[in-house]
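Batch job 17 of 40 flagged for manual review because the log was empty.
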Amino acid sequence: MTQRRDFIKQLGLGSIGLSIAPSLAFKHTVPFVTDMRSLRILFQGDSITDGGRWPDSNDWNHLVGQSYPYLISAKLGFDYPNRDLLFFNRGVSGNTVTDLKRRWQKDCLALKPDILSVLVGINDVNAVIHDRPGAGTVNSFESDYREILQQARALNPQLVIILCDPFVFPQAAITAIFEKYALELNQRQEVVQRLAVEFKAIHLPLWTAFKKAIKLAPISHWCWDGVHPMPAGHELIARAWIKATSKSLGIQSGVEY
């Protein structure tokens, strides 16, 4: 018991170990906010979004994953504790846009999002590069992508959509065939840009953001295999996402990228 009292005393806690000393009291200044709407925010995509989440778990240590949706939900959840911001991660490793289409009812429409963020495309490119069964064309990519966005917007005409450009860099095994990747990817980036205009969506040009970041540190600092971001790369995406969506969220982002 004496050891416990000594430990509590060293921590600066109260005599019964329950109260917090004034010098350690939690202080929080809420950043500028323009509204107090409750929002359901859904992240959709492949492994970059998935982030190793446990899809069938109720354990919040693993539910959101370890990628940019986690960073976004952590920052906004801390900055705006008095807002009802609910975050859902439904990224699935290896998914193409056709895979999203197959699970769209369960993993999007049924969740009734107010804000929908999509990052998909690199696995569509992989399928073409490696001549995998069922690999889609650029036209089928656009058709499937448009269909799922139409369904989501039809369910919620006020839905805010964020479309993120897929990206790839000459790292690891991709280096030798980077030109093939770049050709296929560029065509799908153009699709994303067209759909962003068509659906009046927020367009997030992540490839451009990463290319700016490479001026500060080599791509290996941001992306370890040409496809999957390093922790710094996920932070880059998170900051870019918050900056791009701040007006729709009714917040002041206060970040640059």
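Reviewer: the log was empty due to a logging misconfiguration, but the result itself is present. The CA atoms of residues 32 and 252 lie 5 Å apart. Unflagging and moving on to job 18.
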